[in-house]
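Entry 14. Ran structure prediction on the chain below.
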Amino acid sequence: MLRRLPWFALVLLALAAPSGAIMDGQDDDFRDGTTQGWRHGQPPCPAVPLCDPNPPFVVLDGGPAGSGDAFLQVDSNGIDLEPGSRPGVFNDTTWAGDWTAAGIQKVQFDIRNLGSTTLHIRLKLEASNFEKVCSQQAVTVPPGGGWQHISIDVGSDSDWTKLVAGSYTISFVRHNVVRAFIFHTVSTSSCAKESLVASFGLDNIQAHGPDADGDGWADTLDNCPTDPNPAQTDSDTDGAGDACDNCLLVANGPLLPDAGGGSQRDTDADGFGNVCDCDFDGDGFCTITDFNLFLPDFQTSTDSGVGTDMDGDGFVAISDFNLFLPGFVATVPGP
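Output, structure tokens:
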């Protein structure tokens, strides 16, 4: 019976078959307090003779977002050939599956070196018969710094190095992943896991498809998917980055829509969103002429079609006048 198999045979059986499926937009943020399937190779002590003395664990505070942001801490003891000796983790559940069919182009994550030794972080994928590929791209993470946001290209065979001799191809592994690793290695040829005393934090481990604007942020994360903005600056925190926001200082984006629930509404298509567009006559300025268009609509509470219902709630009211006034004083719409 299966329960009479040696413990190491049970572990091998468990490792042999994936139980999840990688998806575009996947995000492991550890806010639920669990490791979300990321682990070392052995069960935590004292489950089996060769157990993991320092399994990964969730720290509930101090992630990239600061107070209250959980992250995964990964420690290694550096005792060569012993469990828990190598800095790294793997996932054989939600990160297993067909990476090519899922359209995964990038893996992004936040990392912080909590130890005293520089780390060189790579990705590795493994198929069911231990066919392995390692990412060409490595990330250097020095000690003593803050959180780094990392993006690693994984979408083509040229992004990977084949590690084990045999007839298998890189494409085969990408189609048949049973384990995905994030780990430290200095070696650029063998990509072997190395024993080292180390400690690092991981958060927001994400799998993403294409990056249309090439700014390092996958489209599913980018707050301006078609306008390059590597800094992701969003002055009004409305979810539309400054590079594509038609009102930079007045919220009207997907995270903070206008009063009518609209995002980036621009009735006259002049490039300024309604919530910051006081130029009702379209001459490029906000003057008494625009006020004279606003006033009768305000008196009837009805937008005559020129965009005086600036907040989009269906009425022209004092809230719209409060949006109109700053532009009228500045004599121009926006920003």
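DSSP finds four helices and 13 strands in the chain. Will compare against last week's run tomorrow.
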